[in-house]
């Protein structure tokens, strides 16, 4: 094991926010077991990732955490309340920006509030949306349409749309996988900055070991058939993280440890 060490109104920094206990999921009348006995805890202000091969249950896990599907067994709790369906305090971001092309950037960002509380509430939230746009470096793009934004800019707008409702936890489904490598690196650093500035609690699904390591306090390594946590790797790298860290021996040792564990579990 390399130098990967200790873990790290709003709960105090480090307080448990999201907890899964013995979560399992079966399909086809219990003939197919997708997840088995998954246990994890996300603490306030932490950034966690889950990594594993395609088919290991990462997407199923994220759907359960977002409330889109129920677990077959176990318990899912967010801020002391069971997750039994989609909730306002869960923010979700997908691989594609999924912005509506007929709405401006600002209109797209306040859309969750408009759907939830009506047009008057969405109008009242526009100043908050403008502040978020400034936070992610999109000040001045309020009235542009998605077709006029680059891929990275569209994803930053999606981050704003996720944050506008002030969720307790951010669930990220490979949000930058469609971007080129340079833009992806930049967006990862932006995501770190945004989460740090808001003391956000985040959980990322990724296929990239370096991405998981550079962003996370904790990396959950998943083993497939059925999917479960094979190892919890605690990342002892100083914050703020920088791209330069990816060239250091310590970073390389952590990446190699996770890669070796994936190989050991017969991942491809």
TrEMBL record:
Q: Its Gene Ontology molecular function terms?
A: ATP binding
Instruction: Mention any Pfam family matching this sequence.
Output: ABC_tran
Which InterPro entries does this entry report, sorted A to Z?
AAA+_ATPase, ABC_transporter-like_ATP-bd, ABC_transporter-like_CS, ABC_transporter_ATP-bind, P-loop_NTPase
Q: Where is the ABC transporter domain?
A: 18-249
Q: Does the keyword Cell cycle apply?
A: no
Q: Does the keyword Ligase apply?
A: no
Which key words are in the record? Answer: ATP-binding, Nucleotide-binding, Transport
Similarity annotation: Belongs to the ABC transporter superfamily.
Its name, as the record gives it, is ABC transporter ATP-binding protein
